[in-house]
Amino acid sequence: MQTSHAPAGTLEGNYEFYEENDNVFFMNNQGKHSFEELDVLQLNILRDDLDAHPRALNAIENQLGITNPIYQLKQWAICNFGNFDNKADLTADGVIIHEHVNCEKRGICKFEGIICQPLLVKNGKITPTEIKIIKLIARDLLDKQISDMLGIALNTMAVHSTNIKKKIGCHSKAGITAYAYQNNLL
Question: Does residue 129 have a pLDDT over 50?
Answer without folding.
Answer: yes
